[in-house]
TrEMBL record:
It comes from Rhynchospora pubera. The lineage of its organism: Eukaryota, Viridiplantae, Streptophyta, Embryophyta, Tracheophyta. Keywords: Cell cycle, Cell division, Mitosis, Repeat, WD repeat. This is CDC20/Fizzy WD40 domain-containing protein. One of its GO terms (cellular component) is anaphase-promoting complex. GO terms for biological process: anaphase-promoting complex-dependent catabolic process; cell division; positive regulation of anaphase-promoting complex-dependent catabolic process.
Amino acid sequence: MDASPSFSTNGNNNTIPVMDLQKPDFSNLVHHWCRPARASSHDYADRFIPNRAATNMDLAQGLLTIPRKEDSTVGISPSREAYRKLLVDTLLQGRTRIFKFRNQPRTPKRSFLDLPPAQPIKKQRRIPHHPEESLDVQDIICNRQLNLLDWGSNNILAVAVKDTVYLWNATTKSVSELVTVDDPITSVSWDLDCRRIAIGLNNSHVQLYDPATNKMIRTLQGNDQDVLVGSLAWNNYLLTTGSADGLIINNDVRIRSPIVSTYDNHSDGICGLKWSPSGQYLASGGADKLVHIWDISKSDPLHRINDHTASVRALAWCPFQSNLLASGGGKTDESIKFWNASTGACLKSVNTGSEVSGLLWNKSERELVSSHGRTKNQLVLWKYPSMAKMAELIDHLSPVLYLAQSPDGCQLASASKDETLKIWRTSEKLTNKTTSRTSFVVGPCNMYSSIR
């Protein structure tokens, strides 16, 4: 039946025609490109259970009940099987389970028990400012060209007082007399293995003694003039002597005629001699304000250094840098200078404020010890290379003239114009002993020490 127009009436009795139009159905034209409409909610059961009306239940039952061969490869080409295995290995990476049905465990909070063990705290270094031992050395000669103190590798300290050499055993604290000679002793030095001890005299002679028997082994004759031998330095079997006339002599103590070479480049007395740890270089300091560095294989000095403005007595080779030399100047100089022995260049210069009478490197730390004259008459411990003062050891009443170091590097010995010899400990090894006095000469009263 065809649709016909209808009429409605409003309040004014006017009749308004109303058309009852039907929308055309285009679904059959566009179903191939329009997305199907979402199924309404009444097509599903409760709790989103899908409608199983279109499910083939017989097929599903068969798939669930019929056993399947997992490793069956029937109908699968070798290339496809290889691709399948490669795909499984790549995606699963050896895992047999794809899904995880448990929560990932929480990462526990870091406990202090899990922290790495702390490094042990290094003990703060304590350097005593008072000597461990104080010994009287009466009548010790006070001369800045002499070297009357030497500490051997056998832990025995040799001290020359006038015409006598005394041996102080640092282990047993005992004192013995080595020898008394006719002339004043001007220098003393142990050889490296302490089988011999050299004694320089004021008549250009050097005597070698056996400390085990206290007997003289031989005498080394210097030049023809009667001049004092104020400096001695060992280099294995080679004994180098320096005299007041500026002559340096190298003596081979194994042969009958010991003099093997001489150096004559200083115009004034030799104040200090030191061989480098390698035995290749010799440093000499003189009253002529010069420092010479010699090569053992050459007759002329390798370097001539004239930067100091006073006599140079303090010389020390660095134990951890073979070509580093430290030198100290006298009264009008008051400086410590560091030299590159290879090039002769001055690396650093430090003004100490007083004359430098001795220099020693610490054997286990990067430190340097210097001894001084007025006004403090002190020993100073320096940190290298900053040259910051670590400690000042003040106890002497007069300028410190002689300085020596124990073989383990833990102790220092200093002798002064005040006729005292003091033993200082600069390492962390501390003892409960107070400053004591040891007697060199046994007399009716041993309450004080004395060397006569």
